[in-house]
Amino acid sequence: MTDTDLKLARRARRGDRQALEALYERHRGRLLGYCDKMLSSRAAAEDVFQDVWIKVMQALPRYRPSRGSFRPWLYRIAANAAVDRIRRDRLRSGPELDADQVVHDAPNPETEGIGSEIARDLDAALTELPERQRSAILLRHQLGMSYDEISATLRIPEGTAKTLVHRGSKALRDKLAMWSDDER
Amino acid sequence: MNVERQLRDGAERAVPEALDHRVRTALRTMPLPASTFSSPALALGLALGATLALTTGLAMAVAAAGAAESGVAIATTWVVGYLGVSTVVSLPLLVRLGAPRRNREVQA
After folding, report:
1. Does pTM top 0.80 for this prediction?
2. Cα-to-chain-centroid distance, residue A114
3. In chain A, which residues have their Cβ closer than 8 Å to the Cβ of B106?
4. At what angle do helices A17-38 and A2-13 cross, to 10 degrees?
5. Pairwise CB contact (< 8 Å): A80 & B108
6. Which CATH number characterizes residue A165's domain?
């Protein structure tokens, strides 16, 4: 997967649009899933998703395959874009409507039905986490990144990445304790 | 409930058709920025190469115009001196040029 990404990224850097589209094809579903969980509204997630791909196009000449694989680079752009959007929304809405306190504005059709309540509570719990912790949790558990990759994505030491994931997971488990098998 | 499994299960989200169309159109039609130097080493190599070519040409012209023996000595001194000075000047500049580029990547 990484090798293919690197080959495609090298071709895309040279202006090969088919390679760029192939990268989009490979990462679009998971990237939108990440944006969706990072942001408090679907519309914001889709805006950021679109912005990320435009930024990828603009930043590709500066991407150095020798410095690391494509996925951490892509998600670094996504994480920064998502955090920028969260802060902008927070400034716009003011203290009375903090974006971090808002859960997804529309029901997610994929999670409707059995377990939809759990999914909504999980989304709400995620939005209460600090942005960096939320991002680390998603990179680890949603995308299955190694701590090394998380460290490269968020530009933090590996130890910090482990701490963020550990604390974030614990916070989520505490917030969702009512759904644990023992409680039910 | 297993939080990790719950997150993993919802990892992928189908991209709505309209959004997919907008992004693909942008990927196909937006102008791609020109690629910059692939590495500072390449930029340094090119700068030194250009300097060497220019200086050698100038020194040869001086040598051809002046007396043969002193002309060669002047040319040699010129090439060595100019290469040394340009390396000392261009190295810190290239390092400084690399730093904002790395910052831009983070901001992007």
Report:
1. no
2. 25
3. 76, 80, 155
4. 120
5. yes
6. 1.10.1740.10
